[in-house]
Amino acid sequence: MRILIRFTTETAWMDEVRFDCHVLMREANQMTLLTGSVTCLYVQAGRQHLAAIFVPPSIMERYGGRVERVAVECYYQNSVVTDYTIPRTARKWWQQYTAVPDAMVTWFYTPFLRDGVEAYEQVKIGRQGL
Questions:
Q1: What are the tens digits of pLDDT across the range 6-26?
Q2: Which has more pLDDT, 68 or 125?
Q3: Does residue 10 form part of some domain?
Q4: Burial environment of residue 76 by CB neighbours within 10 A (0 to 12, 13 to 18, 19 or more)
């Protein structure tokens, strides 16, 4: 599963913009919160910026079920500057669940490594355990 993040910036240059992603999965009566983040580097002011984060097929199969909700928080200089949820809500629902951390990866760790990556912002490469 791919989560596509389109964003606009007004600051001339932003050295790092981090997006924390939360996906709530339901399988029968079990709810599982998957989390991951992607950090874009050296983002120039403008429109049509694009970032993506992926939930690998093995994680989707492991936690199965269907996607109930998705949330993305945008951080700049270690502060949340905006968030977006599907479905839309002002409540930070992801805070009430215990997360499965690092359940998502950037395009760099997918088979799509060379498939259209020029459209995405440069990302910080690095992953715990590697």
A1: 999 999 999 999 999 999 999
A2: 68
A3: yes
A4: middle
Q: Could you tell me the two tokens for 91?
A: 């409540």
Q: Indicate whether 23 belongs to any domain.
A: yes
Q: What's 107's domain CATH number?
A: 2.60.40
Q: What is the 3-class SS of 13-26, one letter each residue?
A: EEEEEEEEEEEEEE
DSSP structure class, residue 61:
H
The closest of 34, 38, 19 to 105, measured between CA atoms, is 38
Domain range for 57? 2-119
Structure tokens at 103: 């359940």
Q: Are 126 and 102 in contact (CB under 8 A)?
A: no
Kindly report, residue by residue over 40-73, the tens digit of the pLDDT: 999 999 988 999 899 988 898 888 779 999 999 9
* CB contact at 8 A, 18 and 84: no
Q: Is the pLDDT confidence value at 130 over 60? A: no
